[in-house]
């Protein structure tokens, strides 16, 4: 990761520390996202992260902490994310049967097994890609001079992390929109969760790398590769649209006495629901 990179001599000395600050801000926003998502899920009795996104995210964090992290700061950060994942996984398994009873009871009844299988498959995919990437110097786009990983120059763990995290991010951003539309209610999500998730992406995936690309274009040319632009561009586009869709959904949803939410017809709203607006 960039904290071990050695930029060219013409780069400002504050470049890597500034990148670390931006990345740390993104990490804090994601910490808040996980906590808020668990709290909202318990309050509304609906899990908050799409199944595929959760499986990919879990596998990415596991592979990264086991095989990619090289500093204590990175390792602690990923272990903390895995700890926070416990609440998200718990609420997914707990409320999954209820969330799926109207569309696919089979998925709801077996959601724990399904999530486990999806995570295992995603782990294999992440692992094989990561091991290939780390197998020899020079893999990836751009000049790898100054890119260090565990004492070897030319292995770019920053680019590796971007590709693996970028795929996870676009699946989460697009999947969150799909889940909101299919459900027709805001169970498991909120404006605070959206904002925190969006800021986590902006600071932790885009701005930190854009800063490095601006001052070190040869080393971060991959950030403007068409597929990279598709990943972070699509993620941001989905996240920009999301609050407007959430607003429309919340206008019509109905809150039940137990705090859970259901799809409304747009013409009626419970008294308790109105009080939450």
Q: Could you characterize what this model shows?
A:
It is a single chain. The protein has one domain (2-275). The protein is elongated. A hairpin with a 2-residue loop joins β1 (148-149) and β2. By secondary structure, the chain is mostly helical. The termini are far apart. Helix content is 68%, strand content 3%. The strands form two sheets. It has a two-stranded antiparallel sheet.
Task: List descriptors.
277 residues, mainly alpha, two-stranded antiparallel ribbon, disordered C terminus
Distance between termini? 43 Å
Q: What fraction strand? A: under 5%
The helicity comes to: 55-70%
- The beta-strand count equals 4
Order of helices and strands: HHHHHEEHHHEEH
**Unreliable segments (pLDDT under 50, ≥5 consecutive)?**
267-277
Tell the overall outline.
Answer: elongated
- Cα radius of gyration in angstroms: 20 Å
Read across the widest sheet, the strand sequence of neighbours is: 1-2
Number of helices: 9
GO cellular component, one term: membrane
Membrane topology: Multi-pass membrane protein
GO molecular function, one term: lyase activity
Pfam family, one: Pyr4-TMTC
């Amino acid at each position: 990761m960039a904290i071990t990179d050695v930029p060219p001599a013409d780069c400002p000395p504050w470049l890597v520390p500034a990148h670390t600050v931006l990345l740390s801000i993104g990490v804090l926003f994601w910490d808040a996202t996980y906590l808020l998502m668990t709290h909202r899920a318990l309050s509304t009795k609906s899990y908050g992260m799409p199944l595929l996104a959760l499986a990919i995210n879990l596998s990415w964090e596991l592979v990264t902490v086991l095989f990619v992290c090289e500093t204590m700061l990175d390792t602690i950060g990923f272990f903390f994310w895995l700890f926070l994942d416990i609440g998200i996984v718990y609420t997914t398994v707990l409320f999954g049967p209820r969330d799926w009873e109207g569309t696919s009871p089979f998925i709801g009844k077996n959601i724990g097994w399904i999530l486990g299988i999806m995570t295992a498959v995603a782990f294999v995919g992440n692992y094989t890609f990561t091991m290939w990437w780390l197998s020899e110097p020079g893999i990836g786009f751009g000049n790898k001079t100054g890119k260090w990983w565990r004492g070897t120059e030319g292995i770019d763990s920053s680019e590796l992390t971007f590709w693996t995290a970028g795929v996870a991010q676009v699946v989460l951003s697009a999947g969150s929109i799909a889940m909101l539309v299919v459900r027709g209610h805001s169970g498991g999500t909120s404006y605070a969760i959206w904002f925190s998730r969006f800021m986590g992406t902006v600071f932790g995936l885009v701005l930190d790398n854009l800063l490095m690309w601006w001052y070190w274009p040869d080393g971060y040319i991959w950030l403007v590769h068409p597929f990279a632009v598709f990943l972070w561009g699509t993620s941001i586009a989905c996240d920009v649209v999301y609050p407007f869709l959430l607003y429309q959904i919340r206008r019509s949803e109905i809150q039940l006495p137990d705090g859970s939410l259901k799809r409304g017809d747009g013409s009626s709203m419970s008294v308790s629901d109105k009080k939450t607006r």
